[in-house]
Design goal:
Blueprint: E1 3-7, E2 10-12, E3 18-25, E4 33-39, E5 46-51, E6 58-59, E7 68-73, E8 78-83, E9 92-99, H1 105-111, E10 125-129
Parallel strand pairs: 2-10
Antiparallel strand pairs: 1-3, 3-8, 4-5, 4-9, 5-6, 7-8, 9-10
Length: 131
């Protein structure tokens, strides 16, 4: 049975850091493209960090580049999102998701997984950046 479970969200002050974890079961994390996505109230979903299973390449949109880092621990079957220099506009629910390999990792972030459902998405964790 496939599960993706996010953890590590919370309340942090502007300029602070958080590390989110996505612990998976039922599949090998290194065999799939993995992405972190976020959705703020009233806004669309945004892919903020994606990691390719083919070549470990990464993609970040301009809104988070230089501040967020995605990484993977194959032994722990866990993917992380290190978020530094957080801003109030980073406030959102953050989700991890998997997909079969994309030709280019930015497609994972731009288009999202080509399948929906609990086998492909986690339930999300809230990140609030506020003083």
């Amino acid at each position: 049975q496939v599960h993706l479970v996010e953890s590590g969200g919370g309340l942090v002050q502007p300029g602070g850091s958080l590390r989110l974890s996505c612990t998976v079961s039922g599949f090998t994390v290194g065999h799939y493209d993995i992405g972190w996505f976020r959705q703020a109230p009233g806004k669309g979903r945004e892919g903020v960090a994606c990691l390719s299973s083919r070549d470990d390449s990464t993609y970040y949109p301009g809104s988070v580049k230089g501040r967020f880092t995605i990484s993977r621990n194959n032994t722990a079957n866990t993917v992380y999102l290190q978020m530094n220099s957080l801003k109030p506009e980073d406030t959102a629910v953050y989700y991890c998701a998997r997909d079969l390999p994309h030709p280019a990792v930015q497609n994972m972030c731009g288009l999202g997984p080509r399948r929906n459902g609990a086998d492909w998405w986690g339930q999300g964790t809230q990140v609030t950046v506020s003083s």
